[in-house]
Structures are given as structure tokens and as C-alpha cells.
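cron nightly-structures :: item 1 of 1
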Amino acid sequence: MKGSFRTRGLVLRTTDFSETSQVVKVFARGHGIVDLMAKGSRRPAKNSSSFHAPFDPGSWYDINFRKKNGDLHLATEARLVEGFRHLRNELPIWLDATLALDLLRTLFTPGDPHDDLLRETLQYFKLLSSGVGRRRLRNRYLHSILVASGLQPSWELCAGCDSPLSEVPARDLVFQLPAGFFCSDCVDVSGRISVDHALLNYLRADSTQEWGKVPSWQVPDAVVLRGWEVLSSLISHHLERPPRSLRYLRV
């Protein structure tokens, strides 16, 4: 639908188009992923009344844009609302934010709004500023990604026979891609990973944990790391390759 729109969006990626312009990929409220041509965004601020600085990945903007034929639309004006500068103060935190940006632009198609996920991404970025609970926050964010992309497995029932997982003996509890958790009677021998109820209970509780409680939540490090292995493997399997940013991530 053609027309002019005003929204707020999180910049996922920028590409220099010329000496004065950028192509910007934005996760926009009400619009989902949008690709924008920002003519003049790289000019000095005094020479541009529409853009006060180049777009910056991982920042939150008020944006006016005009839809054009095709997939590339025209940004006509933008104002920085929140730059999340704290994300850039420490490399491990910036790598966590980069993974989030990577997943958003890789898993979701243009024009498909996910406003709840956008809101949770902003919460995630804000809470990373605390400097504590980074691994727990990352796992909680992967839950949000899995829910929004339709990849979240059941934490309650066996994916094969629908038996309650809480009633499956720990020795018979298995995780297997791509469906999730099974009792040992419902899976092939290949590719199965033994899990336990401590891990399953953590993942079950983490999937609905309030964001503000995540940084101070007391969970053994070993369980958090095993949770990361399960959650990241689900996403990587769907992508058929690990996200590029994972190779740099300090788990």
C-alpha cells in the first residue's frame, strides 16, 4: 500500500549507498522489516534538515517514510529517540545485541509486523545495561524469538505421544531437533540429547519469566549454559546454519 507513514523503528543494519546516503533495514512498529533509502543521511547535520546524523545499527528512531513500488522505500525524515550507547561500552554486551539484530533480520520477512517482539527487543537492550545476568537475559530473548517465529517447542508434553514431561523419568527425558522434548520411547537413536528435569523446569519457567526479574534470577550457571545450547540449536536448525554473529559470541 502506497502512502506516507510515521512510525518508530529499530535499525537492524545500515549500508552506505553513496557519499551522502544509506540503505537502512529497520524493524518498524506496525510494519515489520522495512528497507529504506535515506538520501542525505550521511551529510553533515547542518546541511540536512531531515537527518541529524547517519543511521546507527541498534538504535531506536522516529521515522517518516514513503512507500514506493518494490521493496525499497524512501525515508524522508528521522530523529534519534534512543541510541542504547551502553551496548557499545563492552564487547560481550555488543555481541549479544548484534546477535539479536542478526536474528531479527534473518528470521522475519519484510512487511510482517511483530510488535510484541519489537517491544521485547527494546526491553532486552535496556536490561543489558545493568551488566548482570547477561546469559540469562540472552536465553530469555531467544524464547521471545522462538515464540514470534513459531518455533517454540512444548515444555509440557512429549512431542511424540503428548505424555506430560513432568511424569517422564529423568533417565528417559530426551531433546531432539527439530521438535523438542520427548520421552525415550518416541525418538530415534541418532541425534538425541539426554536432558534432565532441572533443565526442563528452567526452560519452562524462563519462557514466561518477567523481563525485570531475569537479571537477578538465581539459576545455576551450568543450567543456564545448557539452556543456551538447547535454545540456540533450535534456531540454528531452522536457519540451516548458525547465525553469523554466533561465531564471535562469548557464551
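cron nightly-structures :: done
The longest helix spans residues 221-239.
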